[in-house]
Write a structure and sequence with these properties.
It comes from Oxylabes madagascariensis. It is a single chain. By secondary structure, the protein is an all-alpha fold. Helix 1 packs parallel to helix 4 and helix 6 packs antiparallel against helix 7.
Length: 171
């Protein structure tokens, strides 16, 4: 069950983040607030179902960071440093794309300046990120089957003759 929810939450993360990276109309402060609220609801549901050890919440980390990126101030070099230290699960390309798509919803917000985006790129140039913008929503985590040892000892096993396993010898 834990593995199923980890996979499901990864797919939610990938689809939501890919939509954010492809749609200018959703890159705003209010969308960041809504995303963060929805993610907290998912995290609370996981805790309520005792699934916090499944790794499902960790698969949402890029989306959480993207939501926080939309909510942060984007003016000074201190803001740029905060963004660079906060967005460790996002690639440089993803951060820059979200900043380029950022669209102010009301008159209190301002567009992200080109100088600010260049500052971010300069600070993040040392990262060795994969040159990938979108997440692969078809990625599958490996299925792990836990080993459950049997209480039956090998000495007590009787092999019926009808199985024609005479070539096996008890040691």
């Amino acid at each position: 069950i834990q593995q199923v929810f980890k996979q499901l939450f990864y797919m939610i993360n990938a689809m939501a983040l890919n939509n954010l990276l492809l749609r200018k109309d959703v890159c705003s402060w209010s969308t960041g607030m809504q995303l963060r609220f929805n993610i907290s609801q998912l995290e609370e549901w996981l805790r309520g179902k005792n699934l916090q050890q499944s790794g499902a919440a960790q698969t949402l980390e890029p989306l959480i960071q993207a939501a926080q990126l939309l909510q942060l101030k984007k003016k000074t070099s201190e803001d740029a440093e905060a963004i660079c230290s906060l967005c460790t699960s996002l690639t440089t390309q993803q951060i820059v794309k979200i900043l380029n798509l950022y669209t102010p919803v009301n008159e209190f917000e301002e567009r992200v300046t080109v100088a600010f985006i260049r500052n971010i790129q300069k600070q993040l140039q040392e990262r060795n990120d994969p040159p990938q913008l979108l997440l692969d929503f078809k990625h599958m985590f490996p299925v792990l089957f836990p080993f459950n040892p049997s209480a039956i000892t090998m000495d007590s096993i009787h092999l019926p003759a009808s199985l024609n396993l005479d070539f096996l010898n008890k040691v």
